Amino acid sequence: MSEPGTTRRGLLAGAAALGAGAALPGEALADPHAQSAAHHRPRTVAKKADVIIAGGGLSGLVAAREILAGGHSVIVLEARDRVGGRIWAYDLGGGEVAERGATFIGPTMDHLSALAGGLGIATFPTYDQGMDVYYVEGQRTTYSDAGLTGTAPLDPTILPDLTLVVSDLDSKAATIDVAAPWSHPDAQAWDSMTLQTYVQQMSLTERFQELATLACRSIFGCESRDISLLFTLFYIAASGDEHNVGTFERNFNTRSGAQMSRFVGGSQRIPLALAQQLGSRVVLNAPVRRIAQAGPGVEVATDSATYNGRLAVVAMAPALAGRIDFEPELPYQRDQLMQRVPQGNLVKVTAVYPEPFWRPAGLTGQAISLDGLANVIFDDSPQSGDHGVLLAFVGGDSARSYLAQSPAEREASVLGDFATCFGSGALHPTAFVETLWPLEQYTRGCPVGLGTPGTLFEYGFALRPPCGPIHWAGTETSTYWNGYMEGAVRAGQRAASEVLAAL
Fold first, then answer.
1. 40 pLDDT exceeds 80?
2. Cα gap 172→456, rounded to integer Å
3. pLDDT band for position 491 (cuts 50, 70, 90)
4. Which residue from 87, 308, 355, 423 has the highest number of Cβ atoms inside 10 Å of its Cβ?
């Protein structure tokens, strides 16, 4: 029998309610006095456990299951009214879903694959039959991602720059120690340079520089000026595993790349299944406000209760972890790190149709557009094909422009971009769904925390080491597939191993 508050139906319904209630630009903010009063309601000591975990995303849930299997008690405190964090499904009905957050699984993501397989959750190939669309300067062309450039457009204007830059990035990334990128002999120089500066120095064509920025918007939710070259090289190096060197191609491509496959029934099935196993150990609507080191253990406070444990795991992005009040204060290096790793600025937009109408036309549903706001588009249709779903990543400057528009303007903009790529049938969806990650209170942006210039070299070493009884998880702490579901699983497993060794 399912535990109260952790059923699939209840969590998905809560997710829908949360999405519908997100504040939009121009709307009145909540009364800060009311928020303050909520934070200071009388608390009761609810439960004690060996380990208290702050964050019910994939990383926190994985850590909890591992700790429980190791013979120790655990409580997971999740701020939202659903589990999964940046993994979130949109219910299409009939057991079918579209993805509002993390979606894909690809080669070398073996920890995620093993976890899903153990839970009985299968994968299916991302639809990749036919031609991709490339739209630039008012011209629409198609190309096969089985060609020389993979998912990148087969554009002769940019091909020399693409070959040179990708080769150089892969070569540099191969020299990076994913566990300590700040230790590289060139770390200081590379971390002092933005990716934009590097591309401008390497590239001869303005079009390729635009393509590099577009890639940043979809991969990181930022502009190439926002992240350092060192962080970019680490991210590429992390796109592999202990036996396979990370490459840009594996990160960016659909065919034989990170976007190769999806989960039957949606990615959120994984955290939902983990939460069901953990049962009442998962507490929803419980944002962690304070973590105090109390004697030999920790005291973790939410708005309504206090939880005592021997150790704590904070399984959330650095930007969110930095909003917790720690007593005593954390070492200054860890605090400075959390101030310097903002969340990406990414919106995910989904349009639902009666069928994937682009497939009979020989199109994959994937597109790259240097014009408009929907710069990177995927076919997000369920495996059955009973619905057609297009999703767009809108990031960086495009996301800022998008969020400045009214809801009607936003919908018209994106549907217009879809129609440009796939025809007029894209103008008439049965549903239009926005996931405004920068406005989600307990996410504050997607898909990953960003390595701003100087951050990795100066403070990266403080990312993973425990601070006394406080341990760190979350995909941003992973050495491989940082920012992805695979990274979240790996980070949760590492944190659990640390905790079990310390107990």
1. no
2. 16
3. very high
4. 87
Q: pLDDT band at residue 4, thresholds of 50, 70 and 90?
A: very low
Q: How many CB atoms lie within 10 A of CB 69?
A: 10
* Residue 295 binned pLDDT confidence (cut-offs 50, 70, 90): confident
Under the banding of pLDDT at 50, 70 and 90, the label for residue 236 is very high
Element (H, E) at 48: strand 44-54
Q: Is 495 helix (H, G, I), strand (E, B) or coil?
A: helix
How many other C-beta atoms lie within 10 A of the C-beta of residue 114? 11
CA nearest to 102, candidates 64, 43, 58: 58
Does residue 498 sit in helix, strand or coil?
Answer: helix
17 or 304: which carries more pLDDT confidence?
Answer: 304
Does the pTM surpass 0.85? The reply is: yes
The one-letter amino acid at 349 = V
The verdict on whether omega for the bond into residue 107 sits within 30 degrees of 0, i.e. cis, is no
DSSP conformation letters of 374-432: --EEEE---TT-SSEEEEEEEETHHHHHHHTS-HHHHHHHHHHHHHHHH-GGGG--SEE
The 261-263 sheet, strands edge to edge: 104-105, 261-263, 123-125
Residues 369 and 153: beta-carbon distance below 8 Å: no
Query: How many CB atoms are located within 10 Å of the residue 28 CB?
Result: 6
Dihedral over alpha carbons 403, 405, 407, 409 (to 10 degrees): -130
Q: How would you classify the pairing of strands 104-105 and 325-327?
A: unpaired
At 45 the pLDDT is: 62
In single-letter form, the type of residue at position 304 comes to: S
The stretches of 287-372 forming alpha helices (DSSP H) are: 318-321, 332-339
Helix (H, G, I), strand (E, B) or coil at 346: strand
Q: What is the pLDDT of residues 110-146, one digit of tens each?
A: 999 999 999 999 999 999 999 999 999 999 999 999 9
Nearest Cα to 345, choosing from 464, 225, 439?
439
Q: Quote the CA–CA distance of 182 and 247 in Å, as a whole number.
A: 19
Angle, in degrees to the nearest 10, between helices 206-219 and 159-173: 50
Radius of gyration of the chain, Cα coordinates, nearest whole angstrom: 22
Q: Which residue has the tokens 């591992």?
A: 66
Q: Are 373 and 409 in contact (CB under 8 A)?
A: no
